[in-house]
Amino acid sequence: MAVTRPRLLAAPGRALPLRRLPSGHVGDYVARLLVGTSLLGASALPGVLGN
Which residues of 22-46 are buried (b: 16+ CB within 10 A; e: fewer)? Predict the structure, then answer.
């Protein structure tokens, strides 16, 4: 017996690349955390140095 996903919850075609991102590999999560932290720090840097 197969379980199917209702059409209301199905991802549109443009969201498919985002659904393929999580691979479950620990290194991927570490890399995403590092990139996110770097982007957050870079966005806050002008406010910190603006004084």
Answer: eeeeeeeeeeeeeeeeeeeeeeeee
